[in-house]
Amino acid sequence: MIPNFKPQLIKRRSGPPPAKPAPSSKPPQNSSTRQSNTAPPSSRFKLTASNKSRTASPAARAESSRYLSPPRPRVQTKKRKVSPSAAILWGSDSDDESDGSHDDSASDRKRQKTSSSVEPAFHHIWSLKPDHQRRIRVHPKPSEQPTSNSSSTDGPILPARLIDSIKLTRGAWAKHYKSPFPDLDRNLIVSLQYPSPGRREEFEIICPPPTSDDVNPLDDIFYTINEIIQHYLPAQLDKDLKLSDDADGIVRRLKRAVTKNQPDEFRDALEKFNTIIKDNLESISDQIDSMHSLPLDLVNRITIQTYQRTVSHRAHLLRRVKDKEFTYGELKYKLAHKIFEQTGLNSKSVFVDLGSGVGNVVLQAALQTGAESYGIEVLETPADFALDQASELRARAKLWNISLGLIQLWHGDFLASPEIDAVLHRADVVLVNNKVFPQDTNFELLNKFLDLKAGAKIVSLESFGAGAGKQGSRNENNIFNIFDEELFESGTNMVSWTDAAVEYYIATKRC
């Protein structure tokens, strides 16, 4: 059963919010935090009591719901509390996938563990509002590539570097792999043509043990072919060639060759598919040009590949980072999708993730929406992994013939970063997982948010509404009174630290 994913605006608040439990000793994962015993900085805002209520936007809710999948039962409107004790460390959710349902797990961007040849298909109806200003297909002219609007945002940008699948199945971690074609003297090596004029990707056809969570090259090929057929080839071509036919389609032929130990048939079937792609690149280009948004299942396939090739085999290092007590959890890709939808993120937007971890949400924003996407992470290891992911995504997106928004990632403290300060002036959407931030950190963030432009949106896991008030009380001159805040519930299985639904907040700056 598909989990109830549709977020709901569940209530307005007026007056003081309910008392919150004492903060956990574990600040949030993927978030730069700074503990301080000093008093909050002075402010021109005086702190006096107020009963001002938060405002909702029914019109905006109705508009965003047009692009959701078919209605699901409403989540409970009763407020749920997620205990800070549910916090987990980096990478501790890497083994929580179950066979055939990896799309619903945080480890989608870790190692795959599935035997199905088709990824769950219900995600094809998950698309953002069409963005007619975005040119999704890669265009060769350098002048058409995204550039930064501000030289002050310059930061480390690694060149695009494609890591072939074959590199993942060689070395010490691949010693337990076995060939599905045992009669061969050496493992079968094949290549796959993506829907672009670019080079092919090489795969070594070997399989991990059934109980292993290591990457499976066969599944990667099967899933990738299905995405290409579904989203890149004209429907009539698919029908004429019976590429997705259940009895004799290309994936079915490949699986049959594996089952019957026929490596030549496997190679021939894949070469036939590669030839079809090469011969129909013009039609594929037309098909991409007709797209005005990317289906979420396609976005997920590309980000899974990116994570597998850069982070998956070293995910254990994320558990060894210094100051790992300052980590909490991460948003899964479906919740990121919903946030992009609710905030109207598009190719003309600027997105900022304060505490970006290994960069998952930043990369998804650049790929799925084409937005300028920025992130900063205080921990060195995840920050370095984020740069590697960005490098791989730049190259892999070209294979898939998809242009990206600008990606910029930094290692540093978001409270002391001039680069982030410069970007925040232009930001349209700011994401911050402040689930267990101390009060002084929230207060400093609020002061930074004063520089946001009118209409900018802040997405947070805890409300900033009580960030400057004593014992959680709101005040008439509280900084946050210049924001209108809405409270949502995520639906189940949307964050890494719990399967339960969690609350999140979207605040819009009025002036």
UniProtKB/TrEMBL annotation:
Chief subcellular location: nucleus
Q: What is its EC number?
A: 2.1.1.360
GO CC annotations, alphabetized: nucleus
Q: Where would one find coiled-coil regions in this protein?
A: none
> Catalytic activity annotated for this protein?
L-lysyl(79)-[histone H3] + 3 S-adenosyl-L-methionine = N(6),N(6),N(6)-trimethyl-L-lysyl(79)-[histone H3] + 3 S-adenosyl-L-homocysteine + 3 H(+)
Q: Which GO terms describe its biological process?
A: DNA damage checkpoint signaling; DNA repair; methylation
**What is known about regulation of its activity?**
Ubiquitination of histone H2B to form H2BK123ub1 is required for efficient DOT1 methyltransferase activity on histone H3.
| Domain DOT1, residue spans | 203-511
The record ties this protein, via SUPFAM superfamilies, to: S-adenosyl-L-methionine-dependent methyltransferases (SSF53335)
In its keyword annotation, does this UniProt entry include Methyltransferase? yes
Compositional bias ranges of the Basic and acidic residues kind: 99-109
Its keywords, alphabetically, are: Chromatin regulator, Methyltransferase, Nucleus, S-adenosyl-L-methionine, Transferase
Region described as Disordered: spans on this chain: 1-133, 139-158
Residue ranges annotated as compositionally biased, kind Polar residues, are: 29-41, 144-154
Main enzyme class: transferase
Segments passing through the bilayer = none
Gene Ontology MF annotations: histone H3K79 trimethyltransferase activity
> Where does the record place it?
Nucleus
Primary role: Histone methyltransferase that specifically trimethylates histone H3 to form H3K79me3. This methylation is required for telomere silencing and for the pachytene checkpoint during the meiotic cell cycle by allowing the recruitment of RAD9 to double strand breaks. Nucleosomes are preferred as substrate compared to free histone.
Family recorded in the similarity comment: Belongs to the class I-like SAM-binding methyltransferase superfamily. DOT1 family.
Q: What is this protein called?
A: Histone-lysine N-methyltransferase, H3 lysine-79 specific
